[in-house]
Each structure stands twice: as structure tokens, then as C-alpha cells.
Design a protein that fits this description.
It is a single chain. The protein is an alpha/beta fold. It has one domain: Metallo-beta-lactamase, Chain A (4-Layer Sandwich), CATH 3.60.15.10. The chain has a seven-stranded mixed beta sheet. The chain is globular.
Length: about 200
């Protein structure tokens, strides 16, 4: 499944599985493949970007978005809160809480989410903008996309705490190299985490 995942920079990913899925598309460039499904974790401009969503939207694209994005997105939008599940053909998307515990930018009550995407017998967890939180404990996933930049989200050291709770087969560091953080944060995480860490090169979609 790793070969089907493209990091678009920051928190953005494209997954080319049986459906084409984007997560938090932001500052999209290049040739853009239309989306079957778009997942939006929360309402901040670098995650919920209506202009970028419009670039990959088709008439039948399904958007799954946190409730706090209401008023910003149009089309076939399925609004979710933590704990909600949405199924689109062979894809199941479960919303997981995402929030800060020692920072002020993403309070729990704001309703931001991460997602577990289940497709092709693989579970992929995108943590959204989060610190290590109790809800991560024991999540049964194969691949975890974890923020590592600090400031607004977990630091590399805090991301290790999250990784210890989840213990996935593979971790992809994210949330660096654009607005805050650098590849050094991803490398630091890789030094600290003994499991498989895949540091991706950002690519236009």
C-alpha cells in the first residue's frame, strides 16, 4: 500500500487505491487527478482549503469533513464528529479525535478529527493536527501518518509517545516543511522510533 501513497506536503496525502482519496489537500500543484473521496480533518485554512478542494472535485466526489468545516465546503459533504463512520463503496472512514493537550491551537471542544481509512485490507491512520492523546491507545492500524513539527502539533518526541500507543507497522511523518517544521523533525523522529519510518519526498499530485 505504501507505493499507492503520495505525500503532497504539509498534512496532505493522495492515496491511489481502488478509489482516489485525498486527505487535507492544500496548495495543490501540477496535474491533478480528480478525487473519489476527500477527507478534511478540521477547519484551519491549511487543511480545509475550498480552493484546493475545487481543483480535484467531480460531480460525484464525496467529501468527509469535520463538523467545524460547515459553511466552507459545498457538494456531497458528509459531516462527521469523533466516533462517526462513513462507508463509500469498499472504503470505510472512521473519525478519531484530534486535539492538543499542551498547546492552545486545537482544543478538544473544537471538534477536529483524524481518520482511519480501511481499504484493500489495509488500515491507514491520519492523525490530523494532534498531540499524543488517550484515544490513540491501541488503535489497530497498519500505517500511521503522524505530525512531528511541534508548535501547533506534536513534536518529534511527542510523536514517539503517540507511536508507542498505536504501534503500527509503518509510520509516515507529516506536518513539516511548509508552514512550520523541517525535514530535520522527521529525521529526529526516525532516530527515536525503532520501527519502520518512511520519510516521503513531497510531490505535486
Amino acid at each position: 500500500m505504501l507505493d499507492k501513497i503520495t505525500w503532497l506536503g504539509h498534512d496532505g496525502f493522495k492515496i491511489n487505491a481502488s478509489q482516489t482519496i485525498y486527505i487535507d489537500p492544500f496548495d495543490l500543484k501540477g496535474e491533478l487527478e480528480p478525487a473519489d473521496v476527500i477527507c478534511i480533518t478540521h477547519d484551519h485554512y491549511d487543511h480545509c482549503s475550498p480552493g484546493d478542494v475545487a481543483k480535484i472535485l467531480r460531480e460525484d466526489t464525496v467529501i468527509i469533513a469535520a463538523e467545524n468545516c460547515r459553511g466552507k465546503l459545498k457538494g456531497d459533504v458528509r459531516w462527521v464528529r469523533p466516533g462517526d463512520k462513513v462507508t463509500i463503496k469498499d472504503l470505510t472512514v472512521e473519525a478519531i479525535p484530534a486535539y492538543n493537550v499542551n498547546k492552545k491551537f486545537h482544543p478538544r471542544e473544537a471538534g477536529g478529527v483524524g481518520y482511519i481509512l480501511t481499504m484493500d485490507s489495509t488500515k491507514i491512520y491520519h492523525a490530523g493536527d494532534s498531540d499524543p492523546i488517550p484515544e490513540m491507545e491501541g488503535l489497530d492500524v497498519d500505517i500511521a501518518m503522524l505530525p512531528v513539527s511541534g508548535v501547533y502539533v506534536a513534536t518529534a518526541e511527542e510523536a514517539v509517545e503517540a507511536a508507542n500507543m498505536i504501534n503500527p507497522k509503518t509510520i509516515i511523518p507529516m506536518h513539516y516543511g511548509s508552514i512550520v517544521g523541517s525535514r530535520a523533525d522527521a529525521e529526529r523522529f526516525k532516530e527515536l522510533w525503532p520501527g519502520e519510518v518512511v520519510i516521503m519526498e513531497p510531490q505535486p499530485s
